[in-house]
Specification:
The complex is a heterodimer of chains A (537) and B (374). Helix content of chain A is 48%, strand content 20%. Chain A is of the alpha/beta class and 537 residues long. In chain A, strand 1 and strand 2 form a beta hairpin. In chain A, helix 2 packs antiparallel against helix 5. The longest helix of chain A is centred in the N-terminal third of the chain and has 74 residues. The relative contact order of chain A is 0.07. Chain B has two domains: 270 residues, no CATH class; 94 residues, no CATH class. In chain B, strand 2, helix 2 and strand 3 form a beta-alpha-beta unit. Classes of the chains: A alpha/beta (537), B alpha+beta (374). Chains A and B meet through helix 1, helix 2 and strand 1 of A and helix 4 of B.
Chain lengths: 537, 374
């Protein structure tokens, strides 16, 4: 049946023209053009239900009104019982057909010849495919809108996060800068002749300053952790050394309240590990600090035991136990929430920001671990967690000392030291510190430009470089000094960053940019002593 | 009154002189120009006279021109029309990213009384079918279309379209007039082997037919019939007798002329095809072609009484002339006779024809005769 074959072929070719694009107008143009061409029509249009204007019409001129009129009068003029074909009529010497595009609308076609019944019936599945193509295009368009909205929301959130990060960085810097002065001058005052009452007052100032510094660090660390900006940095370390340093850091505070600090390391513990020692120290320090806070005349024990060892992977359980005030069941539900404390009454006997355990939780999340607690009110608490760490046979590098070196006095009187610092108060502080402790007159530059100029004119043994300075920052000044040294064959001089930029990654960035060492503000004078000891002796 | 000036030689001065005469003739309102490729005219020679014409001009440089009962490889025909033509040029005819519809719609937005549109395109541009489709998508069957592809049988693209812009390539010139016309189209090619499918195509280059390499299948079907082995070298000579026909409803066929085979076995055609197109392999004999041309002309003659037409235009495919060879003059005579032996009878041999049949969908044809009364 040649006629049948021809019809099939024509309809196949029409069907092929559909579904190759997800753009609605392209799809309609391609499909309607092909229908018109293959059926040898002279005009075609597609209408949506209840919309008087054609979604697409070919040609642009000539038949728009007549088609719209027929669509509009469809309800009255339908003269076909066939649901697929809704209307067939004569227009002068032409034939107009209106087909029902089920769930979408209508297809109108005008030809100079008539379509036979067989072809009309065979058009039905083809027009069904057209409707599917249209719906696919509409779905695609909706998805694109949603995708764009999601993308816009994501960009807005990222921008907001950037703003928050920048705010945090600024706040950190702005708060630490005056804190540096308070802390520094307080330390200087401590070293001057004071009566007992003044000594006590200074001690309170010092403690308050330390609390404020710790609070700022806690808030920043928690915010970073919650924003997903904290990451583990694996390195090798000796576990025993890390644990001893943690306890050593708290010894003074323990002594003040008559508490004892004990360390309990199981015999079979592998000592040489690969993990993130800084984060581990942070967790243990927070737990020990917490334990000491809620214990008087008691014992705080830090213990480590081996849970399991397979090949070079060890599962260790860390535990901080105290015999302090303990925690009730109800309070246990809240203690890991930020700013929540066991005692939130106005007396606030125990002080603290209430962020320590939240920070512990966030850091442990990085290790894919969680904190557990058992407690009995009046008897004490036991905080414990398990971590996996890689064991190594080789002797690793020692943990960078987290505790200040022994403050043996050092003679650096003949050293020539350049301080680049734009803040007047901090300039005064450092000048006073160096004069009093080391009998050294500092050379002071007020910004990076001056620092570079002074460096070129003099021979310095060490440069203490603030980072955030006007005109030229510390990183740029460091680069220029090092270029000068290279070009002039000079021995490189240690440049130590002194900065209130104390967020995660700041230290690494500064060391990577050429700095020899890093002192965060507020400057800890023991750390300063360590640096001077390291680089000038 | 239409004035037809035939210049059998290529003297550029004579061309200029005749153009100026028509340009200054108050009874003439627009000028249609057919030149021969073998005149070797350049843009540098023609542009100074074309761009200074005061009247709208349109036309092209074609492989050959037809005047009265002869066809010529050299010479010019200048047709002075007593009615105004709105002439617009469409550029970048090979750029597939261009949407011609919007350009055409915008250029003709103020012109609403179009009854006949002359369409001459650079026959070697890559998007002729897209232009033709765009024309129909804008105007539909509001008007008749008469036209074809200009250019050279060397198949090297060069400036070949004439307008008030000068001589340009890769463009189309559209001249719209508010006068009726009669157009008839016919070809005479018959189906040799039917119901094949274009399964991979890149615009006008067929890569696969029936999922086979195009040249391989073409050889399979044509070689037994023509008795010769087809190579890339002799492809054009053989293929001029064996075009494709794109099938439409009612058994109408749009002829597609394969003119070259690539080293990959792909077939280069004059005009585009679409993936999925059903095609037949066509063939004919000289007499059938000539007879078809006559019948086409007769269709126009039968309707001559509708209007006082002043001229008969014969736009014929150059490949029909190449196929008919010395018999091509018989085709010209057949059309002349069929059209009622008109006083003014002229035209051109073109690279592809543009016309609509009895107010159906506009197509770009190959190997087809178009006869028009204007």
């Amino acid at each position: 049946m040649p006629g049948s074959h021809n019809r099939l072929q024509i309809l196949y070719e029409i069907a092929l023209s559909m579904g190759s694009s997800t753009d609605l107008q392209k799809t309609l143009k391609s499909a309607l053009t092909e229908i018109l061409r293959k059926l040898n029509g002279i005009a075609i249009a597609i209408f949506e239900y209840k919309k008087p204007q054609a979604v697409h019409i070919i040609p642009r001129r000539g038949f728009r009104d007549i088609m719209s009129w027929h669509i509009h009068s469809l309800g009255d003029a339908s003269n076909s019982g066939n649901e697929h074909l809704l209307l067939t009529t004569r227009l002068d010497n032409r034939n107009l057909y209106i087909f029902h595009l089920k769930t979408y609308g209508y297809l109108v076609i005008i030809l100079n010849h008539s379509l036979d019944d067989m072809l009309i019936k065979m058009l039905e599945p083809v027009l069904g495919k057209l409707v599917s193509s249209i719906q696919t295009c509409q779905d695609h368009a909706r998805l694109q809108v949603q995708e764009q909205q999601l993308h816009d929301n994501l960009v807005a959130m990222e921008n907001l996060q950037k703003v928050k990060d920048q705010f945090l960085a600024n706040m950190s810097h702005e708060i630490r800068t005056p804190l540096n002065a308070i802390s520094g001058f307080t330390q200087l005052l401590k070293d001057s002749p004071l009566n007992p009452g003044q000594v006590d007052q200074i001690k309170h100032i010092e403690q308050s300053t330390q609390l404020l510094t710790d609070l700022i660090s806690d808030i920043l660390n928690l915010t970073k952790a919650r924003a997903g900006k904290m990451a583990l940095k694996h390195t090798s370390f000796k576990l025993t050394q890390l644990l001893e340093q943690c306890l050593q850091q708290h010894q003074m505070i323990a002594d003040e309240e008559g508490n004892q600090l004990h360390l309990n390391i199981a015999q079979d513990i592998p000592d040489n590990l690969i993990s993130d020692p800084q984060k581990l120290s942070q967790i243990l320090n927070n737990l020990i600090s917490n334990a000491l806070k809620f214990t008087r005349q008691g014992v705080v024990t830090l213990s480590v035991s081996l849970v399991e060892k397979k090949a070079n992977l060890a599962c260790l359980e860390f535990c901080v136990q105290d015999n302090g005030i303990g925690i009730t069941e109800t309070e246990l539900q809240q203690i890991f929430n930020p700013f929540s404390q066991v005692d939130s009454t106005s007396t606030r006997k125990y002080g603290g920001s209430g962020l320590g355990l939240s920070i512990v939780t966030e850091i442990l999340r990085l290790f894919h671990a969680k904190i557990n607690v058992e407690s009995t009110p009046g008897k004490g608490s036991r905080f414990y967690f398990r971590l996996n760490a890689e064991t190594i046979p080789a002797k690793p590098a020692s943990v960078a000392s987290l505790v200040a070196h022994d403050e043996k006095s050092i003679n650096i009187r003949n050293s020539k030291i350049l301080l680049a610092e734009d803040n007047r108060t901090n300039q005064m502080l450092m000048k006073a510190v160096f004069k009093k402790k080391y009998q050294v007159d500092l050379d002071i530059a007020g910004d990076g430009v001056e620092a570079v100029a002074m460096y070129k004119r003099n021979n310095y043994d060490i440069v203490l470089m603030d980072i955030n300075m006007p005109n030229m920052d510390g990183v740029e000044a460091t680069r220029k000094i090092q270029n000068f040294e290279q070009q002039n064959g000079k021995t490189p001089v240690p440049i130590v960053a002194i900065t209130a930029n104390s967020l995660e990654g700041d230290r690494e960035k500064l060391l990577h940019s050429g700095m020899s060492d890093y002192l965060p503000k507020p400057v800890n004078f023991q750390e300063l002593h360590r640096v001077l000891q390291t680089y000038l002796l | 009154m239409i004035k037809v000036n035939f210049l059998p030689d290529i003297d550029i001065t004579a061309f200029q002189h005749n153009l100026e005469i028509l340009d200054s003739d108050p009874s003439i309102q627009s000028i249609c120009i057919f030149c021969c490729d073998d005149n070797d005219y350049t843009a540098a020679q023609l542009n100074p006279m074309l761009t200074t014409c005061k009247k709208p001009i349109f036309g092209g440089i074609f492989p050959q021109i037809i005047y009265q009962l002869q066809h010529y490889h050299q010479g010019n025909i200048l047709i002075g029309l007593p009615y105004h033509a709105d002439v617009k040029v469409i550029h970048q005819l090979s750029d597939e990213n261009i949407e011609f519809e919007d350009d055409i719609d915008e250029k003709f937005s103020a012109i609403t009384d179009i009854m006949t549109m002359f369409v001459f395109v650079d026959g070697l541009s890559k998007s002729i079918s897209s232009l033709v489709e765009a024309l129909f998508n804008v105007f539909g069957v509001e008007n008749n279309y008469i036209g074809g592809g200009a250019g050279s049988l060397t198949f090297q693209q060069k400036p070949c379209i004439i307008s008030n812009n000068g001589l340009e390539q890769d463009v189309a010139v559209l001249a719209a007039i508010a006068k009726p016309s009669i157009v008839a189209v016919g070809h005479g090619w018959q189906s040799l082997d039917a119901n094949h499918q274009v399964t991979r195509v890149n615009k006008n280059v067929i890569e696969q037919i029936d999922y086979q390499n195009a040249l391989h299948l073409y050889k399979t079907i044509v070689e037994p019939h023509c008795g010769e082995s087809i190579t890339n070298r002799n492809f054009f000579d053989i293929a001029k007798a064996y075009p494709f026909g794109i099938n439409k409803l009612n058994d109408e066929k749009i002829v597609r002329d394969p003119i070259a085979a690539t080293t990959d076995g792909h077939l280069v055609c004059v005009g585009e095809l679409k993936e999925g197109d059903s095609i037949d392999f066509l063939h004919s004999d000289h007499n059938s072609l000539i007879q078809a041309a006559r019948l086409t002309a007769e269709q126009t003659f039968q309707r001559t009484a509708e209007y006082n037409f002043k001229m008969t235009l014969f736009i014929d495919c150059v490949s029909r002339a190449l196929f008919l060879e010395e018999k091509f003059r018989q085709e010209i005579i057949a059309v002349y006779d069929g059209a009622g032996q008109p006083d003014n009878f002229a035209g051109a041999l073109v690279l592809g024809e543009i016309a609509n049949i009895g107010q159906n969908y506009l197509e770009f044809y190959n190997k087809t005769s178009v006869v028009a009364k204007i």
